[in-house]
Amino acid sequence: MMKTSLTGLSAASKELSVISNNLANAGTAGFKRSSAHFQDLMPGDDAGRPGLEVGRGTRVIDVSRSSAQGVLTETAGSLDLAISGPGYFVFGSANSGENDPSLLYSRAGRMVMNDAGRIVDSDGNALLGFKAVSGNVVGGDPQPIDLLSVVGGKAASIAGVTINPQGKVIVTTNDGRNLPVATLALADFPNGNGLKNVRGSKLAESVTSGTARYAVPGGDGVGNVKQGVLEASNVDIADELLGMVRAQQAYNGNARALQTQSEMLRTATETLIR
Question: Per-residue DSSP letters for 222-236?
Answer without folding.
Answer: --EEEETEEEPP---
